[in-house]
Design goal:
This protein is of the alpha/beta class and 470 residues long. The chain has two domains: 235 residues, 3-Layer(aba) Sandwich (Rossmann fold); 209 residues, Glycogen Phosphorylase B (Rossmann fold), CATH 3.40.50.2000. The chain contains 16 helices and 18 strands. The structure holds 6-O-phosphono-beta-D-fructofuranose (F6P). The site of 6-O-phosphono-beta-D-fructofuranose has 8 residues, from strand 1.
Length: 470
């Protein structure tokens, strides 16, 4: 599907990471729907993407990928430790995910977070054309909107939070809670994944800054900040096309054969993050083998756990626990040459993932809390055969839309086991009916539509000159 930019204003995107990765032949666009949705818009409007290359102390000059200008923001090794691993991923990340782990609140980390946010804002102020639309992404950059507005009152500023925004009772633990809300209120439009995130944010703004709000519009001193709900999606056409390819079909058959042609392949695909509920899922699988409701000769689980944030202790602990469980369950129920859990601690390429989705009869997406979870949407989009069952946590944003999944509360181990059995034993007719429902839903809302809707609302913000509002 081609992306129709909703505005002719130049668009400038800011995200912690640039949308590229290093390959043997230089830089290439990173995989993923967000990048595929935004790059064409930037190209068509002459826009720019501002972000970090992912390497510490990288003083890369601006460069171009796929006709889009990329502006690197350097981050030192010490700042990676304090701003990225520390404040963003050991402070905000657990707090915003139901405080599933203790957060670290440390002044030096906050200081580095402010400093890096200021660097992003300065770069945006320097390179944004007059009246540009600036779209800032995610929790690593929450202070940027206010910092940018101070320097450039002509630009229109949007922010999208990809992760949940916590209830005030949790958010108020943050020592710099007022500063974060003030930072975000520099925006013309703030987007959340779910209605709950939007109302949590509004309540925090009211409690901490006594702002006036009506119909999701917050009155600030010199402007209004609108709050909206924009559930993100995937590049449906890209997933479907890849899923339909010959190479994918061949690889899918090969995967099934390599796994010993089991009756049912259960599948998990996650970043190795403690929010994803991987351990609980493995325990449920082990308990069902133990009770005999699943049979190692007929049922196997493939768990892909993508390495992520490996320097953060909570992630190291989670990996240890997952690998202990995999070893324990395989030791107990595996046979020579046929483990019952196939565990890959690896980053798989897009094509391999799509083949795995197609091979998976039952997809297990069981996070304790997740902003959206695009794996759930990719699984359904990849099932062009109209078969396959999705088991989905109620605590993933995707549960609002994917109501034809087998929805489950992952905190309830009995319910999780029951959901797995329901999925494994589901009659073909019901499987197909539910998959049709999932695929209909996803085809109505892909990532291009998401970006388009956000930018349309943003470009209708009052501080744009009327002639540019068309
Ligand atoms: O959606 C949450 C998020 O942190 C994104 O900002 C990021 O692109 C993705 O997860 C991967 O995380 P990281 O950049 O820390 O590897």
């Amino acid at each position: 599907m081609s992306s129709a930019p909703s505005t002719r204003q130049p668009i400038v995107v800011a995200a912690n990471r640039l949308p590229v990765m290093r390959t043997d032949d230089g830089w290439a666009p990173s995989p993923g729907g967000l990048v595929r949705a935004l790059l064409p818009m930037l190209r068509e409007t002459g826009g720019t993407w501002v972000g970090w290359t992912g390497d510490p102390d990288d003083a890369a000059e601006p460069f171009e990928v796929d006709g889009v200008e990329l502006e690197p923001v350097p981050i030192s090794a010490k700042e990676v430790e304090l701003y990225y691993e520390g404040f963003s991923n050991d402070g905000l990340w657990p707090l915003y995910h139901d405080a599933l782990r203790e957060s670290t609140y440390d002044f030096d980390q906050w200081d580095a977070y402010e400093r890096v946010n200021q660097r992003f804002a300065d770069k945006l102020a320097e390179i944004s054309p007059p009246n540009a639309i600036v779209w800032v992404h995610d929790y690593q950059l929450q202070l940027v909107p206010k910092m940018l507005r101070k320097q450039r009152s002509d630009v229109t500023i949007g922010f999208f939070l990809h992760i949940p925004f916590p209830p005030f009772e949790l958010f108020s633990r943050l020592p710099w809670r007022a500063e974060v809300i003030e930072g975000l209120l520099g925006c013309d439009l703030i987007g959340f994944q779910r209605p709950m995130g939007a109302s949590n944010f509004i309540r925090s703004a009211q409690q901490l800054l006594q702002v006036d709000e009506h119909d999701r519009i917050i009155e600030c001193i010199d402007h209004q900040t609108r709050v909206g709900v924009f559930p993100i999606s995937i590049d449906v056409a890209e997933v479907e096309e890849t899923a339909a390819g010959r190479a994918t079909r061949q690889r899918m058959s090969q995967i099934r054969a390599r796994l010993g042609d089991p009756e049912v392949i259960l599948l998990g695909v996650d970043r190795l993050d403690y929010t994803k509920g991987i351990g609980l899922r493995l325990e449920a699988f082990g308990a069902l083998l133990e009770s005999g409701e699943l049979d190692p000769e007929r049922h196997v689980l493939v768990q892909v756990a993508t390495p992520t944030r490996e320097a953060v202790e909570h992630y190291q602990d989670e990996r240890q626990e997952i690998e202990r469980l995999v070893g324990e369950i395989n030791g107990r129920f595996g046979r020579i040459g046929l483990p019952v859990i196939h565990y890959l601690y690896q980053t798989l390429g897009f094509d391999e993932l799509i083949a795995l989705y197609r091979a998976g009869d039952v997809m297990l997406v069981t996070p304790f809390r997740d902003g959206m979870n695009l794996v759930a949407k990719e699984y359904a989009a990849a099932h062009i055969d109209g078969d396959g069952v999705l088991v989905l946590s109620e605590f993933a944003g995707a549960a609002d839309e994917l109501t034809d999944a087998v929805l489950v509360n992952p905190h309830d181990d009995q319910a999780l086991q029951q959901a797995i059995i329901t999925a494994v034993e589901m009659h073909r007719h019901e499987r197909r009916e539910r998959m049709t429902g999932l695929r209909d839903q996803i085809s109505k809302s892909d990532v291009q539509g998401w970006a388009d809707r956000f930018l349309r609302e943003l470009s209708a913000a009052p501080n744009l000159p009327p002639s540019d509002n068309a």
